[in-house]
Amino acid sequence: MKRLHLVHFVLAALLVCGCEPSIPAPTPKPEQPGNTETPETPQEPETPETPQEPEQPQEPEVPSDPTKLTGTIIGSQYSVDYNNGNSQSTTVNTKDKVFDGNYDTFFASYDRSQTWVGLDLGKKHVITKVGWSPRVDHQDRVQLALFEGANEADFSDAVPIYIVKEPGVNRTMQYADVDCSRGFRYVRYVSPNDVRCNVAEVEFHGYASEGDDSKLYQLTNLPTVVINTYGAKEITSKEVEIGANVYIISQDGTDLLSTKNTGVRGRGNASWDFPKKPYRLKFESKQSPLGAPASAKKWTLISNYGDKTLMRNMLAFEVSRNVGQSYTPFCHPVDVIVNGEYRGCYQLCDQVEAASGRVEAKDGYLIEIDAYAYNEDVWFNSTRNTPVTIKHPDEDDITDQQIAFITDYFNKMEAAVFATNYKDETNGYRKYLDVDSFLRNFIIGEFCGNTDTFWSVYMYKDAGEGKLYTGPAWDYDLGFENDYRTYPINNLNEYIYVWKGSAASDAVKNMVTRIVKEDPAAKARLIEIWEAALANGLSDLAADLDAYAELLKESQDLNFKRWKILNQYVHMNFQALGSYDAEVKFVRDYITARLTKFDQLLRR
Ligand code: CA
Question: pLDDT at residue 488 above 50?
């Protein structure tokens, strides 16, 4: 068997390099795909009429695999010569070595990442199977390799057809069926990050066909977001957008959102400094990906690097829905690929902005009490020294009058909170501030245990007589006991904001105290909202957690193969529990304890 396999390899290699085979080629089947035509055999295949008796027991036929594709070898230009001080080479460990049928030869790219090897098949083929074998004794290096197909030579329209989820096996071809109906002229094996390809053999199998888009490939049960930047440029800036084709494959590969000229850039504050980068997408035209309620150009990809459950934001949004906030950001977990490289499990979320289907203040204002306001384009300090960013109207559209108006309104609200008559139903702070949304936001932050609830607070207001509303909830990766500064939350008989929570200003912190601790009417209302939220699903939040854990099962497994941090402290972690399941259980236990504890705090 082994020998026959090798014969097949040799034949394929000869076909690839265009040499005349020195052994008879297997009779080509009519469907034989690949642009490299099987060289005409000088003699006609034996015709059935030949009255020649097949008495001679023939050698067992070479098990020709009519589906194995050949073509022009393409890929990263330079290889590395390990025997010569890792020098750049075009003669040693070259890319043709993955098609030579020899397990002892391999392609090692000179660059450590973003390298690949593949075939130009000459015309479109539907791929049915891929095969791979690692460089001998480097089995790990194929894990997370991605097979892709494309019809542009630069792979700017590439979509995944298979991801290798496990390490390889020495001197063994492993195969996977490919379930993708699109036809591709170009196919490739993209190296996992930082391993220089280091692959001994690669195979593509399939048949010539235009194919169709009835079935594409998803990495897991979650939708796959594919970002192919033009020129395969890495996304390195939070300020400068680069262009990309972005594809979102969902519904088990039967739904495709296909976009071009999508702007991609980095985003986030602390999260931008981690190796797993958060991104912002800006589509050329409005889209509603994954059934999102909003139709909008701007969407975020949240990286959740420091949140090893990968679901804290989603849980907080569940709480936001339970307490009845009028708007909770859309958020759906996805797998992300950038330029052929698997990047991990992310969340595709709304951009927090004033827009239809998002914060309903399109003709009004969206502001953020924000300790980082000084980094923003349009912001002000209130008379009580609270830093506030103006998010909407955005910096290109806002007028001086609008800035003056919202600054003045915020100052009036703050002054009313600190006035002696502040509890007055008509002329107190209720004149400017919508109390219910403020209290709901308080419950979300404190129940979820978010240290930064009052470090960053979104508020919005219409252009007319409307009050300032508080929300939406956003940025909960430090919630649910993921912050060494506030651990252990449930051991303390006080709200987090009083105890150790960070606030954007003393005024903000004191404002919360005056409302939730010192205004009896607000306090009573707080309990009403809490009880309604419990009845509205909050008491069963652990069931939501279990459902998310099930949803994320495959994706988290891949994520922590890419980001091997389950035993590391990252961001504000106070512990590293070593497994995804343990991290989830920890949050589950927190929720159970918090339901009791927070009830006690409210009723003091
Ligand atoms: Ca080889």
Answer: yes
